[in-house]
Design brief:
This is Pseudouridine synthase. Keywords: Isomerase, RNA-binding. This protein has six helices and 17 strands. By secondary structure, it is an alpha+beta fold. It has three domains: 53 residues, Roll (Structural Genomics Hypothetical 15.5 Kd Protein In mrcA-pckA Intergenic Region, Chain A), CATH 3.10.290; 86 residues, Alpha-Beta Plaits (2-Layer Sandwich), CATH 3.30.70; 81 residues, Alpha-Beta Plaits (2-Layer Sandwich). The longest helix is centred in the C-terminal third of the chain and has 21 residues.
Length: 253
């Protein structure tokens, strides 16, 4: 007798495009998920293709996976729902017939490149910290930093007791009259408010911030609020990039 393949419940929910794996765990913990009409609150429960899974009473379906590159505007929340009734990233995708969610987050007042998908496995792959996908930001800061002043960014800073991985920076321009500068910073970590906290720790508070590149992707051809479907080669490039980082991590171990 052939054994049916199984997977963890939270992964099955994520793969169905309902939510990210982390959000799926929250759905389970709060009793919003049933398996074969029984509420499941425990993590790690295994399910198979013949199990009937429902979230909030709605059976799981498996729509076609969609992948979008989105130019998130400022003053938009990187979440599916917002208790404060602010505009969310999903409000820009009302014409799409699938439930999408963002891969990672950008702060409410940060603009720039955000990937939207209903493929939970793909989202988890990109967000896993060990894969070290580079993100490039452009920040307008108060003050005019020198290369020496920003040197700690290259060395790896320690903020709030957490050691951050080294980043690469480039001072793009400065305005002596307004005492401001524009700096490009490339990092691969995703620590909360990382870019703002790095500049603040060095004495150059961020006035405006945008993410302009994510791995091989950039915002060329888009304006704020626009989005486009990712091309198959772009999706594969992200998968290959993550896979390459995983192999490098394995070799280091």
């Amino acid at each position: 007798m052939t054994q049916q393949p199984t997977e963890r419940l939270q992964k099955a929910i994520a793969n169905a495009g309902v939510a990210s794996r982390r959000a799926a765990e929250q759905l389970i913990a709060t009793g919003r998920v049933t398996v074969n009409d029984v509420v499941v609150r425990e993590m790690g429960v295994k399910v198979g293709p013949h199990d009937a899974i429902a979230v909030d009473g709605v059976p799981l379906s498996h729509p076609e996976h969609k992948y979008f590159l989105f130019y998130k505007p400022r003053r938009v929340v990187s979440t599916v729902h917002d208790d404060k009734h602010r505009r969310t990233v999903t409000d820009f995708f009302t014409d799409e017939q699938v439930r999408l969610y963002p891969v990672g987050r950008l702060d409410y007042d940060t603009s720039g490149l955000l990937i939207m998908t209903n493929d939970g496995e793909f989202a988890n792959l990109l967000m896993h910290p060990k894969f070290r996908i580079e993100k490039k930001y452009v920040a307008k800061v108060q003050g005019i930093p020198t290369r020496t002043a920003l040197a700690p960014m290259r060395q790896g800073m320690k903020i709030d007791g957490k050691k951050l991985a080294p980043g690469r920076y480039n001072i793009l321009s400065s305005d002596k009259d307004k005492r401001t500068a524009v700096v490009e910073l490339t990092i691969h970590q995703g620590v909360n408010h990382q870019v703002k906290n790095m500049f603040k720790a060095l004495g150059y508070p961020v006035m405006k911030l945008s993410r302009v590149q994510y791995g091989p992707l950039n915002l060329d051809g888009l304006t704020s609020g626009d989005y486009r479907a990712l091309k198959p080669r772009e999706i594969q490039a992200l998968r290959d990039l993550a896979a390459g980082q995983n192999q490098a991590e394995t070799r280091r171990l």
